[in-house]
Amino acid sequence: FDPRHYLGTHCYGFLKTGPHRLRFLLESVKDLRETLKKKGSTLVVRKGKPEDVVRDLITQLGSVSAVVFHEEVREIL
């Protein structure tokens, strides 16, 4: 979870993430983790800037051959 996506306000003073959306996101991540667990896998969840968290995870794991990510499309206002 990148704090920059959840803290503060966005356009017109609206919260970036309100309480209902945050609850939905947390419940979705919990459900995904439980589903993966049933299939013998796991889900790594971290809080921080992705550029820092991913680097730290790669360092911890040691033998990473690939990193896959997506870039969020930004709306131009």
UniProtKB/TrEMBL annotation:
Domain annotation Photolyase/cryptochrome alpha/beta: ranges: 1-77
Alphabetically ordered keywords of this record: Chromophore
A family per Pfam: DNA_photolyase
GO biological process, one term: photoreactive repair
UniProt-recorded Gene Ontology molecular function terms: damaged DNA binding; deoxyribodipyrimidine photo-lyase activity; FAD binding
Superkingdom of the source species: Eukaryota
Name this protein carries in UniProt: CRYD protein
